[in-house]
Specification:
single chain; 234 residues; alpha/beta; 8-stranded mixed beta sheet; 7 helices; 8 strands
């Protein structure tokens, strides 16, 4: 498994204190990505760990998983290393470790991981497919399909919208998609645009005037709340 960064984080990558593995490689190329260096599948800064090595490291860290913590795999995009990820998740679950993945929902095999994930986080970046293609370099059809599937079966699902001025700041586009879903175990988090990764892009960074005002942000959230969506405050 190729990993470009690992470390502990509290409550931002799933519940509790978690050991977070940032995996190398992503099939999306979001123009605002804060982890630009994680997009290539090969990087001189990435390092290899086997599922057994990860398990050993996790078990040594088990005492630090307080407040319902555990292990989170993020990216890049963790599902592009599917077989290694699946093996690792199975090992962790067999040893009683809480598991979480943060992903873009594009894997056609995501359903296979359901039994081995305690907390599933998925990005819902843009609903319109053409716009999604332009800003991420990939279709969102599989993402929307996976969201519908996990909602239908009542699986815990935490969606994240990275709100960006002029790109995905119309709440009604999201409401039209989300309205038919089963809200029972679905929560939504809206994240304000930031430029934490801009320096990594250099001259290639294309987003202009992406920041949203507090008023925009609150109006966006309030429209979603009116529709019945449970908004998470993290």
């Amino acid at each position: 498994m190729k990993i470009y960064h690992k470390g502990f984080n509290y409550s931002q990558d799933g519940p509790g204190n978690r050991l977070v593995y940032h995996m190398q490689g992503c099939n999306f190329k979001c123009k605002w990505c804060s982890n630009y260096d994680s997009i290539p599948f090969d990087s001189p800064d990435a390092f290899e760990m086997t599922p057994d090595e990860i398990l050993n490291e996790v078990m040594r860290s088990k005492m630090i998983f307080f407040s319902g913590g555990g292990v989170t795999f993020t990216g890049g995009e963790p599902t592009v290393q599917f077989e290694e990820l699946k093996k690792t998740l199975i090992l962790l679950k067999e040893n009683g470790i809480s598991t979480c993945i943060e992903n873009n929902g594009s894997s056609p095999r995501l359903k296979e991981l359901s039994d081995y994930i305690d907390f599933l986080i998925m990005d819902l970046k843009i609903v319109d497919e053409k716009k999604h293609m332009y800003y991420t370099g990939a279709s969102n059809s599989r993402t929307l399909e996976n969201i519908r599937y996990f909602s239908k079966i009542g699986r815990q699902l935490h969606l994240r919208i990275p709100m960006i001025n002029g790109i995905n700041d119309d709440p009604h586009e999201f409401i039209d998609f989300l309205k038919p879903l089963n809200y029972k175990n679905l929560t939504l988090e809206v994240l304000k645009y930031h430029e934490y990764g801009k320096e990594k892009w250099g001259d290639k960074y294309e987003i202009k005037n992406g920041f949203v005002s507090d008023e925009q942000f609150n109006d966006f959230r309030n429209e979603l709340i009116k529709s019945g969506i449970q908004i998470a405050d993290y």
